[in-house]
């Protein structure tokens, strides 16, 4: 993890964001550094950025998208810290019934 290439990560993030027709956030590198230092997988971060843009592209009409990075950063941290259940683990659904994932 010591040889992480921030420039490549930021370039990939910018490409993803530009591909949706938006201007990349100015603070993307700052976020990448914090995510990486906190042990969050860079590929996971890029995937979450893509998912966020697919679901919420209507939120971004102009500007650099720096305001949206607060939201994306929170989502990335929340999803990364979500407990992971092993396959076949029984859980309750919203109707109070057990089911296996």
Write up what this structure looks like.
This protein starts with 5 loop residues before the first helix and ends with a strand. It contains four helices and two strands; from the N terminus they run ααααββ. The chain is 54% helix and 6% strand. Strands 1-2 form a two-stranded antiparallel sheet. The chain has one domain (6-100). It has helices at 6-19, 28-37, 42-56, 66-81; strands at 90-92, 98-100. The mean pLDDT is 79. Helix 1 crosses helix 2. The protein is mainly α and 101 residues long.
User: Largest sheet, order of strands side by side?
Assistant: 1-2
The parts where pLDDT drops under 50 for at least 5 residues are none
Strand content: 5-15%
Please tell me how large the radius of gyration is: 16 Å
**Total number of distinct structural domains:** 1
Tags for this model:
single chain, 101 residues, mainly alpha, two-stranded antiparallel ribbon, globular
List the helices and strands and how they pair.
Layout: H1 6-19, H2 28-37, H3 42-56, H4 66-81, E1 90-92, E2 98-100
Antiparallel strand pairs: 1-2
In short:
The chain is mainly alpha-helical and 101 residues long.
């Amino acid at each position: 993890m010591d040889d992480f290439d921030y420039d490549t990560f930021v370039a990939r993030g910018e490409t993803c964001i530009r591909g949706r027709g938006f201007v990349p956030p100015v603070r993307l590198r700052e976020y990448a550094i914090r995510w990486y230092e906190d042990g969050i997988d860079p590929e996971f971060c890029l995937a979450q950025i893509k998912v966020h843009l697919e679901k919420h592209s209507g939120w971004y009409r102009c500007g650099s998208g720096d305001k949206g990075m607060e939201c994306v950063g929170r989502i990335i941290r929340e999803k990364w810290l979500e407990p992971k259940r092993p396959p076949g683990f029984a859980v309750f659904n919203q109707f109070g019934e057990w089911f296996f994932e």
